[in-house]
Amino acid sequence: MQVVDAGDNSPIEGVKVSIDGQSGTTDNSGKVEIKNLSSGTYTIKASKEGYSDNSLEVSITDSSKTVSISLSKQTLTKLTDLSKAKSYYYTLKVKEVSGKLQTNIEIYVDDFGNKEKLISYNPDGKVDMEIYVVGDKGLIKMGGGNNMSVDKDTAKGYIENIASIGQSFVSSFKDEYDNFVITPSGTLTVKVSKGTQNGYSTDSVEYTVNISGAQYTFAGWVINSGEYKGFLTRLLIENKTPNLKSDEIKTIEINVKDFGKSFDITL
């Protein structure tokens, strides 16, 4: 039995092949031996992460004959920048090893960013800041009832600064996703699957990388169908570096949903 890539006919290693209750895994030549098959008709099933499962019905009269089955690489959705979404609801949570929420924010975006609202919470879950953008005007509400009217650019600058840690990891994910998933290259090991997240059908990608001496596992979910195809709906980053201190970052979680929904954002 041999399993090959449907695109270039190259052998695929590590494919699980099953037939008539027997199973095996292909070697680096894409082959696996299934023994003691009598003459007859069988269904071969082949599967591997990153490829679409395939099955093939074959009639076997000579058990020594090599049967070939092909697998196609899973087609993944190219990422679309959130700036192209008319509206969405975005949350960012940065949690320390101790469990303390270092960052906990919600951002509502409407009318392609002409209306925005950020709510920032302190570690106790109480609101400590709200920032609004409506047209060319902005408003910053601080704890204690102190309000400050500002222009749009100033308000947006505050929002971008507060959300910057999340955006830096989103950018890192996009670079890796484009380089190793959409146009595969290098040696990064990527686990690919499909599923549902935040109510959307998604392509899921997971990989581990080293960044500035720290080890991070990235798991991202990209909407793969419908009107919002291409938008990232969830990103979860976990710091797997050994011996982290209690106040160091353990997880960064971003969720984006409610695409296309209108939000009541006023000053």
UniProtKB/TrEMBL annotation:
Pfam families cross-referenced by the UniProt entry: CarboxypepD_reg
Biased composition (Polar residues): 20-29
InterPro entries: CarboxyPept-like_regulatory (IPR008969)
Signal peptide positions (record): none
Disordered as annotated region, ranges: 1-29
Protein name in the entry: PEGA domain-containing protein
Organism lineage string: Bacteria, Pseudomonadati, Caldisericota/Cryosericota group, Caldisericota, Caldisericia
